[in-house]
Amino acid sequence: MSVKRWLLRRMPHPGEWLASSALLRPLAPYLGHPALWSLQRRKVALAVAVGLFSGLMPGPTQMLTAALLALLFRINLPVALACTLYTNPLTYLPLYFLAFELGKLLLGMNGQLVMPPFPAFDGAHLWQWQHAVVAWAMHMGWPLLVGVPALGLTFALCGYVIVMLLWQCAVLRQWRKRKEVRGSD
């Protein structure tokens, strides 16, 4: 079975999906566009790139960013949204540390700034902890501000190239299989 057929079986049908949600029903003219559900190679590769880039956006804005970019570029919406899910509470800090180090490298600040330890959460003072997290992020300043988009663009470029190459390999493999079945040279 091809990847495209596998995805088509698992993707929600836009009409049913939009009609079943009272919240999304007013957005149906925008979300129902066929290009947002298309499984063409370039649209899927761009959706992966958008999802990987958007996954590094702060907090709850990841899927919103991916959805807005998918609408803007008219690329596969479910793939863009799904590709933001590589960031989670376990991967967020290592990714931001990597972005911080990349930002330091790009700004020529090697060895000048050390990433402070992440504030500990005691479970009782959520509001104070949130302020400590904001102060922690502000301390990192420019390296993080430069590093996050740079790392996101790097992930996006890698994701785009990998999807294009894997899709091309799958198409070539299907052509070879078809040729063998037909018995022609």
Automatic annotation (TrEMBL):
Alphabetical UniProt keywords: Membrane, Transmembrane, Transmembrane helix
One Pfam family this sequence matches: DUF2062
UniProt domain DUF2062: residue ranges: 24-176
Keyword match Membrane: yes
Record's keyword annotation contains Transmembrane: yes
Transmembrane feature ranges: 93-114, 151-172
Protein name: DUF2062 domain-containing protein
Organism expressing this protein natively: Vogesella margarita
